[in-house]
Amino acid sequence: MGKAAENKQIKLEALFKSAYDLFLSQGIAKTSIHDIVQNAGVAKGTFYLYFKDKYEVRDRLVSKTAGKLFLAAHKELQKTEISSFEDKIIFIVDYVIGKLENNKPILQFIYKNLSWGVFRQAVTRNEADSDFNGLDYFQELIQENTSLRLRSPETMLFLIMELASSACYSTILENEPVSFQELKPDLYNAIRAIIRNHVISDATT
Amino acid sequence: MGKAAENKQIKLEALFKSAYDLFLSQGIAKTSIHDIVQNAGVAKGTFYLYFKDKYEVRDRLVSKTAGKLFLAAHKELQKTEISSFEDKIIFIVDYVIGKLENNKPILQFIYKNLSWGVFRQAVTRNEADSDFNGLDYFQELIQENTSLRLRSPETMLFLIMELASSACYSTILENEPVSFQELKPDLYNAIRAIIRNHVISDATT
Amino acid sequence: MGKAAENKQIKLEALFKSAYDLFLSQGIAKTSIHDIVQNAGVAKGTFYLYFKDKYEVRDRLVSKTAGKLFLAAHKELQKTEISSFEDKIIFIVDYVIGKLENNKPILQFIYKNLSWGVFRQAVTRNEADSDFNGLDYFQELIQENTSLRLRSPETMLFLIMELASSACYSTILENEPVSFQELKPDLYNAIRAIIRNHVISDATT
Amino acid sequence: MGKAAENKQIKLEALFKSAYDLFLSQGIAKTSIHDIVQNAGVAKGTFYLYFKDKYEVRDRLVSKTAGKLFLAAHKELQKTEISSFEDKIIFIVDYVIGKLENNKPILQFIYKNLSWGVFRQAVTRNEADSDFNGLDYFQELIQENTSLRLRSPETMLFLIMELASSACYSTILENEPVSFQELKPDLYNAIRAIIRNHVISDATT
DNA sequence: TATGAATGAGTCTTCATTCAT
DNA sequence: AATGAATGAAGACTCATTCAT
After folding, report:
1. Interface mutation target, options C152, C154, C158, C192, chain D, most CBs of D under 10 Å
2. Is any atom of strand E within 7 angstroms of residue D2's beta carbon?
C-alpha cells in the first residue's frame, strides 16, 4: 500500500470511528456531518470523498458491527462441544443478545437496521466492510449435521431473527413488558418451537 | 358544543388528517410543520396550539390508527363462529395483517411504533385518541374460554406481537426473504407453537 | 365604586402584580404578554383593555415602585432629627440604595428607567400610579432650610441622581470595580462635594 | 495573508460595518440577523461563522468604538501643553463627550454599554477588536505626574466615568433637565471636586 | 487529495394583536 | 367588559453541499 493509499485508509477509519462514537452516544438524527468531521479531525469536504451522506456511513457501520458480533459468536461456539443444531442456534442467539445486553447503545443503534437484509448479506454497500455473510454461515451450520433436514430453512431463520431481535429490543431497553432475563426462557422455547416446526422428521414409519 | 368548541375540533381534525396523509405519503422525517399546516389550511401558530411538535402528532396518530385496526378486527371476529382461543388470535392477526398488506403506507407508518407500548395501552398521550386498549381486550379474550389456562399470558402475547409485526414488515414491504403469502403458513404455525408453549395442559393424569 | 368598576380594579391590579413579579424574576425582554395574563389569571384580550403593550406596564410600574421607595425614605427621614440639607440628601440616598441593595431584582428592574424623567415627574403615564413627585418634594426639602441658598438646584440634584444610580448599579450588581460597601464613603463624599459646589455661601464679608 | 484569509477579513469587516450602521440607525433590538447579512452582502450562514449572535457583534463593536474614541482623545491630548492631572482628565472627558455630542447615534449605541467593564478592559471578547486598554492608560496618566498621590484611584475614575456618561446621556439626547452646554460647567466642577476628594495632599506640615 | 469558507434553503418557534362570541 | 382561539409575520438558527484554492 503506497503512502497516499495508506493515508486514505487512515482518514476513512477516522471517519468511521468518529461516526460510530457519535451515533452511539447521541443518535443518528442528532449527529451532523460537521460533528463527524470535527470529531474525526478532517475537513468537511473530505467526508464527501468517502461517503455520499451520513446514512451510507450508518449502513456500512451496521454491517461491520453486526458482522463482528456474529463472527465472535461463531468463534465462541467452536470452543464448545455443542452438537445439536437447535442448541447451536440458541447458543448464537444467546451470545449475541448477551453482548447487546451489555452494550445498550449498540443495541439501540443496530436494532432498527440489523434485519434480514443485513443478516442475509452483511455486506450491503461495501464488500470490504464485513467479512461475515450471515446466510452462508447458516447454511454451513445446517450441513454440519448431515442427518438434519429442514423445510424452508431460510424462512425459519428469518422468523427466529425477527422474533429474537424485536423481543430483545423492547425488553432490554425498556424492560417492557418484562425484563429480558424473565423473557429469556419463553423466548428460547419459542425459538425451539419454531425450529421444530421446520424439522422434517425421519420417523416416517 | 358551542360554536367555538366546534371550530376547535374542526381545526384539530384538519391537522390530524393533514399530518396523517403527509406522513403516509412522504414519511415523517420529510414532513415539516409548514407542510402540515399548509395542507390543513390553518396557520402555523395553530399547530402549536394543539401539539408540541410533529412527534406528538405521530404518536397520537399511531394510537388512533392501531386502535381502529384492532377494533375492526374484533368486530369482524364477533361475526364468526370461531371458538378456540388459538384460532381467535390467528384470526385477529390475519385480519390486521390483511389490512396492512392492502395499505402499505400505513404499515410503513405504523410499524416502527406499533409495538408493545401501543398494544398494551393504545392510549398513550391523549385518552380521547383511541377507544381500544389492547391488553384489556386480550384479557377478555382469554376469559371467554373458561377452560383455558395460560402461563405468563402477557409474555406470550408480546412474543406473538413482535414476531408478527416484524415478520410482516419485511415480507410485505420488501418481499424479503419470501413474499408474505409464502411466509404466512410458517408464521401462523410459529404463532400456534408459541401459544401451545404457554398453555397449561389439564391432562395431569 | 360599583361592582363592575371594582372588578375592573381587581383585574388591573392582578395584571400589575403579575407583570411586576415576572419582570423582576425573568426580565422584561423575556416576559411575554402570554406570561403576564396567564400569571394574572385573565384572558389575553383583557390585557389590551388596560395597556397598550408591555412597555406601558413597565413604565407605570417604575413610577409606582420608585414613588413608594422615596415616600418610604421621606417617612423615615421625618422620624430623625437630621436638620442639615446635606445630611438629609445623604440620608435619602442611603435609605433608597439600602433598599435596593437588599433587593437586587428591583435594582435591576428600576435602574435602566429610574432616571431624571421619573424623578422629575414620577407620574409619567398615569397620574394615579404614583403619589410621589420627586422634584416637588426636593423643592420642599430646600425650603425647609430657609438659610440655604443653592445655585441651579435642579442641575445639582440631577448630577447626584445620575452619579448615585449608576454607581450603585455597577457596584451592587457586579461588585465592579469595588463592592458597594467599599464605594460608599467615596460616593457620599462625592455627593457632598457636588452639593457644596452649588451652595451659595453667605459669608460674603 | 493568503487570498482566502484576505477574503475572510473582508467578510468580517463587511459584517461589522453593516451591523454598526444598522445598530446606530435603528437600534439593536430592531436589527435582525437578516438585516445585517443583507446589508453586508453575505449569506446568512456566514454570520454564524463569525459571531454567536447579534449581541456578540454589539459587544465587540462597543469595544472597538470606545477604544477608538479614547485613543483619539489621547492623541489630541499629546498635542497640548496640559500638565496638571485634573486638567488632563477634564480634557479627555471633554474631547470624548464633544465627539458624542456631534454623533448622537453613537452616544445612544455606546451609552448602555460603555461603562466600567469596557473602560477597564476595552478588549472583552476579541483581543484584536481594540488596541486601547482604559485602565492601563489611566495608570500611565497618573504616573506621568510623579508628585501626584491618589487614594483609591480606580474608585475615583469609576465615579467620574459613571457621572460623566450618565449625565451626558440625558442632557445630550433629551436636553433634560438642562442642555449639555448648560450642564457642562457644573459637571466639570463636580468632576474636579471628586478628583480633589481623592488627592492625598503633601502639605502635612 | 484535501481543505474549510461560503452558501441559502429550510425548519422550528414565538408572540403581539385581532375579533367573533 | 371579557374571553381565548386563531393568525401569520418575523426571527433565530442549522446544515448538507459546493467549490476555489
Report:
1. C158
2. no
pLDDT grade for D144, boundaries at 50, 70 and 90: confident
Q: Of A9, A29, A51, which closes a domain?
A: A51
Q: Which pLDDT does position A123 carry in this prediction?
A: 38
Evaluate if residue C155 carries a pLDDT over 90: yes
C12 and C31 inside one domain: yes
pLDDT in tens, B114-146: 656 656 555 334 455 766 776 778 888 888 888
Residue B37 has pLDDT above 90, yes or no: yes
Please check whether residues C177 and C160 belong to one and the same domain: yes
Of the candidates C27, C19, C21, C25, the one whose C-alpha atom is nearest the C-alpha of residue C56 is C19
Q: Which nucleotides of E are covered by protein (CB under 7 A)?
A: 1-21
Q: Does any CB of chain A come closer than 8 Å to the CB of residue B155?
A: yes
User: Residue A194: what pLDDT?
Assistant: 97
Whether B186 and B99 map to the same domain: the answer is: yes
How confident is residue A151, by pLDDT bands cut at 50, 70 and 90? very high
Report how many helices (DSSP H) and strands (DSSP E) chain B contains, helices first. Answer: 10, 0
Q: Based on the fold, state whether residues A166 and A101 are members of the same structural domain.
A: yes
Q: Same structural domain for residues C151 and C183?
A: yes
CA separation for the pair C19, C54 (Å, rounded): 8
Give the minimum alpha-carbon distance from C89 to chain D in angstroms, rounded to a whole number. 16
CB contact (8 A) between residue B177 and residue A166: no
Number of domains in chain B: 2
For the beta carbon of residue A79, count every other beta carbon within 10 angstroms. Answer: 7
Average pLDDT of chain B is: 87
- Touch test A–B: 3 Cβ pairs or more under 8 Å: yes
Give residue C79's region: left, alpha or beta (phi > 0; psi -120 to 50): alpha
Asked whether strand E has any atom less than 7 Å from the CB of B6, the reply is: no
Minimal C-alpha gap between D157 and chain C (Å): 10
Domain containing residue D9: CATH number: 1.10.10.60
Is C117 near chain D, with CB under 8 Å? Answer: yes
The CATH number of residue B62's host domain is 1.10.357
pLDDT in tens, B157-171: 999 989 998 899 889
Q: How far is the CA of A102 from the C1' of E10 (A)?
A: 40
Q: Which nucleotide is nearest to C29 (CA to C1')?
A: E15
Dist. CA C165–CA B44, nearest whole Å: 45
Burial class (CB in 10 A: 0-12, 13-18, 19+), A113: middle
The cell for A110 is: 443496530
CA distance D61 to D15: 11
Task: Supply the pTM of this predicted model.
Answer: 0.84
Any C CB within 8 A of D162 CB: yes
Residues C89, C140, single domain; the answer is: yes
Same domain, B25 and B44: yes
State how far the alpha carbon of B12 is from the alpha carbons of B63, B64, B174, in Å: 16, 14, 35
pLDDT for A103 equals: 93
Q: Do chains C and A touch (3 or more CB pairs under 8 A)?
A: no
Look at residues D12, D36, D51 and tell me which one is the last residue of a structural domain.
Answer: D51
Cα B112 to Cα B65: distance, rounded to the nearest angstrom: 13
Q: Indicate if the pLDDT at residue B47 is higher than 90.
A: yes
Residue C169 has pLDDT above 60, yes or no: yes
pLDDT in tens, D68-89: 888 899 999 999 999 999 999 9
Distance C168 CA to E14 C1' (A): 35
Nearest Cα of chain C lies from the Cα of D177 at a distance, in angstroms, of 7
Angle at C164 between CA C159 and CA C166, to 5 degrees: 100
Residue A62 has pLDDT above 70, yes or no: yes
> In which domain, by residue range, is A19 found?
1-51
- Which of residues 3-42 of C have CB within 7 Å of strand F? 4, 7-8, 11, 42
* Nearest residue (CA) to C1' of E11: B32
User: Between chain A and chain D, are at least 3 CB pairs below 8 A?
Assistant: no
Give yes or no: residues D127 and D36 share one domain.
Answer: no
